[in-house]
ParB-like N-terminal domain-containing protein (Cloacibacillus porcorum), 297 residues
Amino acid sequence: MKINEIVKRYYPRELLSSEGASVLDGESVRALLRRFVDEANGDLDRLGDERRLYLLEDIQIDEPRFQSRNDISGEAVETYAQSYENGADMPPVDIALLDDGRLYLIDGFHRCRARMRMGAAWGFIDAVLHKNLSEADARFFSIKENMKNGLPLRSRRDREKAFAIYVETGRCRYPNGMLKSYREIAEELTFLGKDTARRYMSSLFPEIARQLSNRYGEPEAGPLEDSSSKTELPEKSTAPALLKSLKRTGERAAAIATDESALLYERQLLALLNASRARWRRGVIETADYEGISGED
């Protein structure tokens, strides 16, 4: 059952009209919404749905700690708010119950901002609760979701923050503590290439960069460029034309192995393809099984 059908069934009649909502004080509105949330969640529980409704005031929104980007897109917030107002069936946000006993938003910051813009009478949102995440897992959750189907990390500041969270939460190491190589790091963080990973590590975590240099013989990179708008794959990159011109899998593999922009371009295509396959509940294509997109439809 769609979440909107549940909302329509239980939403307080007193709040349906703008006049009704305006004459009620804040405490009365919260009481009505809390009763509504409890009733709706009873139905969701009986249906075996993993989603639940939560009041926004019960969710801690700690963007510096859990948001994978530095800036919120006002355009995205406006678009999401209009979608909610038009009755679109939006995906749930993700929240985590951490050791301090509080609920934290870990993915869906733009959607939560959109709900806040709609006013107190709509101060609730549907979410999936994650109970067994450590704080490190919760911090990295947003990055994983953004790499799968979120807004792209376009600015260097956003990519730096996501990279810093990746390192700070220990994802750059294997369970035995051994550091991953820059190529392995870039394979996990699909929004950057190996050379950029090296530059970020040298600038943000110089001690770890020295350890990587000693272990793998990887040279330490120079300082990062000042441009905050630089993208990993330039708009006029020759990678698309290069890869489309190579019809044989072996030729493509050779190009990808020697051309950083070609590698990034191929990863971006694979990520888009897998996002589409996931939407239609098809299996994920692993990198080893992917022979590239020739551009011939």
